[in-house]
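Supplementary Methods, section 5.1.

A reviewer requested that the exact input to the structure prediction be made available. We therefore reproduce it here, unchanged from the version used in the analyses.
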Amino acid sequence: MVKNHKVVSSKNSKKATYELKCFEVFLTALGIDGGKNRSEVREPPEPDVLFHGKDGDVGFELVELCDSGMAQLNKQLPKTGGAKLIHPNAPTAEIIKTKLLKNYTTSRPIELLCYKTNRIFSPDDTICQELKEVIASIDHVKFRRIWFCGESLHLIYDPNRLPDLK
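The structure derived from this sequence is encoded token-by-token as follows.
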């Protein structure tokens, strides 16, 4: 379990722990001390993480932007060894559109945190541009802000220019 976070979920604990680690990277990039039991994993249809911020609670939906071929390869190679030629396919638009159209049950504001690990080759600027294009194609964005955490942290969507979460 991730230190100083609550897992109040029957979600797969491995996935919950992984999401909390990714969320901690996000909080660190924002300069927020995440070590005060300020976040917890939640069950669908709520967003993935509930963060207790200075101005109240905020729900965060997390999504890893990944190449499905890379994801499968990361699972296979440790077991089989060797090398394999793959053709990168980063379905960022499909992944983000699914999250943008999903319905969540919560009375709290919701933010979307997109992140990448070693399962996608696209550089940040390419991903940021693609995210902005997909967001622009949606009539009503349910998230109050959308973030992308790659090589650095990017605020992709913030129509109200809200203050930070600290």
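The first strand starts at residue 6 and ends at 7. These observations are discussed further in the main text.
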